[in-house]
Each structure stands twice: as structure tokens, then as C-alpha cells.
Write a structure and sequence with these properties.
The structure holds 2 protein chains of 2 kinds.
Chain A (H helix, E strand, L loop, with lengths): L3 E4 L2 E4 L5 E11 L4 E6 L6 E5 L3 E2 L7 E14 L9 E8 L2 E4 L3 E5 L1
Parallel strand pairs in A: 2-10
Antiparallel strand pairs in A: 1-3, 3-7, 4-5, 4-8, 5-6, 8-9, 8-10
Chain B lengths: L2 E5 L3 E2 L5 E8 L8 E7 L6 E7 L4 E3 L7 E6 L4 E6 L8 E8 L3 E4 L3 E5 L2
The chains are: A mainly beta, B mainly beta.
Chain lengths: ~110, ~120
């Protein structure tokens, strides 16, 4: 069974700080299928990053994605107030989608 | 710009069948390869339920496969989800989404509660 493990579970930071979120796959994953979403409270998830490193339309350049194989990272260079949310990684493989359990970025 | 809107009963009895529809507007359901359902129990993470192509091919989450059926209605530009034998564990916000190597367009979600 393919599993995505996100860490940390919660990240407590202040506005203006840098956030680094990790997503580790239980087996080597295709970078082209690694996706990141942002979910604000009460809202549907929003596509942030696809293909491990490509920003979706309208996503600010403070968001960046990197990684390959089993280790992927989402970086927010300088946190804005609207960035405090839950972030999920997702991988498509074997005709199914798998989500990580999420990382909550909260205001310190 | 494509928009998705879920609809269906907000309350389903235990052992009953959950039925939801996702209406696609601003574009044709045949213009994208696949359409997905994702759910989120209150306070928890996202769970992929499955996907259906505009031609009716399906892929389901193995953990739900025995209870899930998806269908597409091109004439109404919509697709649907049926989940049978529901329990309280199926209480969640259900989202429909467009799948193009990623889920790039989502509905607002609809809360379905399983309770007698």
C-alpha cells in the first residue's frame, strides 16, 4: 500500500517566517504526479503545486515545491496571514490518488 | 471557467445509501478526462473516494470499492456518487473535483451526516 507521510503535523510560525513542509512517500513516486494543496478553514482545498515543483495558476511565487523519489518539500518563503492553513500532499499512482495526512501551519 | 456544485441529501440513515450529484458549469464534462470525489470527516484529513471518466470508466479507492458506484450523465453535464450501507464513519464533507493529473478545480463541498 502506497502511503504519504507529512511532517511535522503542526508548524507554529510567525508571519514573515519561512515554512518548510515535508512529504515522504513509502515507495519511490513519480515527481510528475506529486501535488500540494492548501485548505483554509471552511473552504475546499486549492491546488498549489503540481508536478512536484510547478505553481498552479495564480499561486504567489513565495510558494515553491521540490523533491524527487520519496522525499518532497513545500516551502513558503515568507508567511503571509492568509497562508496559515492546512497543507496536503497527494500522489497519483496505480490508478488511485493518495493523500498525506496534512500539515497545519498555525500562527505562533 | 469551470465550476462544480455538489447537491444531495444532507442526512442519510445508517445502512442507507448516500447519493450525491456534481453539476459542472462553464465547460463540458467531456472536455476533461476524469472527475473525482473526495471526502473529509469533520476535523480530519482528505480521503479520495474515486474517479470517473467522461466515457464512464472508473477507479475506486480499494477501501470503499465494494460500496461505491459512480456514474456520468453527459446530457445533464453532471456526474454522481452512490455509497451504500453507510455508517456514522461515512459522515463527512463530500467534494467533487476535476482531475487532470491533479485536482485543479473543486466544488465547495457538501456535508452529509449519517444518523437516525
Amino acid at each position: 500500500e502506497f502511503v504519504l507521510t507529512q511532517s511535522p503535523g503542526t508548524l507554529s510560525l510567525s508571519p514573515g517566517e519561512r515554512a518548510t513542509l515535508s512529504c515522504r512517500a513509502s515507495q519511490s513516486a513519480s515527481s510528475s504526479n506529486l501535488v500540494w494543496y492548501q485548505q483554509r478553514p471552511g473552504q475546499a482545498p486549492r491546488l498549489l503545486i503540481y508536478g512536484a515543483s510547478s505553481r498552479a495558476t495564480g499561486i504567489p511565487d513565495r510558494f515553491s515545491g521540490s523533491g524527487s523519489g520519496t522525499d518532497f518539500t513545500l516551502t513558503i518563503s515568507r508567511l503571509e496571514p492568509e497562508d496559515f492553513a492546512v497543507y496536503y500532499c497527494q500522489q497519483y499512482g496505480d490508478s488511485r490518488w493518495t493523500f498525506g495526512q496534512g500539515t497545519k501551519v498555525e500562527i505562533k | 471557467q469551470v465550476q462544480l456544485q455538489e447537491s444531495g441529501p444532507g442526512l442519510v440513515k445508517p445502512s442507507g445509501t448516500l447519493s450525491l450529484t456534481c453539476a459542472v458549469s462553464g465547460g463540458s464534462i467531456s472536455s476533461s478526462n476524469w472527475w473525482s470525489w473526495v471526502r473529509q470527516p469533520p476535523g480530519k484529513g482528505l480521503e479520495w473516494i474515486g474517479e470517473i471518466s467522461h466515457s464512464g470508466s472508473t477507479n475506486y479507492n480499494p477501501s470503499l470499492e465494494s460500496r461505491v458506484t459512480m456514474s456520468v450523465d453527459k446530457s445533464k453535464n453532471q456526474f454522481s456518487l452512490k455509497l451504500t450501507s453507510v455508517t456514522a464513519a461515512d459522515t463527512a464533507v463530500y467534494y467533487c473535483a476535476r482531475a487532470n493529473l491533479n485536482l485543479d478545480c473543486w466544488g465547495q463541498g457538501t456535508l452529509v451526516t449519517v444518523s437516525s
